[in-house]
Specification:
By secondary structure, this protein is of the alpha+beta class. The chain has 2 domains: 108 residues, no CATH class; 58 residues. The chain has 7 helices and 6 strands. A hairpin with a 2-residue loop joins strand 2 and strand 3. The chain binds zinc ion. Zinc ion binds next to loops.
Length: 196
């Protein structure tokens, strides 16, 4: 998932690491190595892509689903519901009915007719229907528990590991600034300034 993006940097000499396809016991796998290592000018050993991917996915998940971000995720969920187009159009329809009812009430003083009050009742009923629909829509649970966060985190890692989706590629491109490979650790530097 990380090959060919220029993310990988050798922790010792700072050169970009490149990918190689290797074969072992009839299976192929990808490794990344520092170009200076082959010339015996750098001590960074090659790293297998699957191991690297897992470490990076875990670090991303750790970053995005940290416990203290729980409130941020809840806010996001709520704004998603609030900005839902159907939700918005319901609100507009309710407003429109209010306006109609107001107009009828204004005319009522002058022309009291059965038709008008009937129409008023109809509108009130329609409004109640729409309002109850709106209540149902906005009553979606907007609490995220610690357990939910754990599940989100696990799902997120799965997504990054198993899918080679264009959206995932774009996400990684936007999120990761640099991955530095040392022999004993791999560190990820993020692009995002707002979420830290
Ligand atoms: Zn190196």
């Amino acid at each position: 998932m990380l090959g060919g993006k220029g993310f990988l940097q050798c922790g010792i000499c700072g050169k970009s690491m490149t990918g190689t396809v290797r074969k072992s016991h009839g299976k192929t796998y990808i490794t990344y190595q520092c170009p200076s290592h082959k010339a015996k000018q750098c001590e960074t050993k090659e790293v297998r892509a699957d191991r690297l991917n897992l470490i990076v996915a875990q670090q991303l998940a750790e970053f995005f689903f940290r416990e203290d971000r729980l409130k941020d995720w809840e806010d996001l969920l709520r704004s998603d519901i609030r900005d839902d187009p159907e939700n918005k159009s319901l609100k507009n329809r309710i407003k429109g009915i209010d306006k109609k009812m107001e107009n009828i009430l204004q005319n009522l003083e002058d022309v009291v007719s059965k038709a008008l009050t009937q129409r008023l009742d109809e509108l009130a009923q329609k409004k109640e229907e729409l309002e109850s629909k709106l209540r149902k829509m906005t009553n979606v649970p907007t609490r995220i528990t610690k357990d939910d966060m754990k599940k989100l985190k696990a799902g997120f890692i799965q997504l990054l590991m198993n899918e080679d989706l264009p959206e995932v590629r774009q996400f990684l491109k936007n999120t990761i600034n640099k991955i530095t490979v040392y022999n004993d650790k791999i560190t990820v530097t993020f692009n995002l300034k707002m979420m830290n």
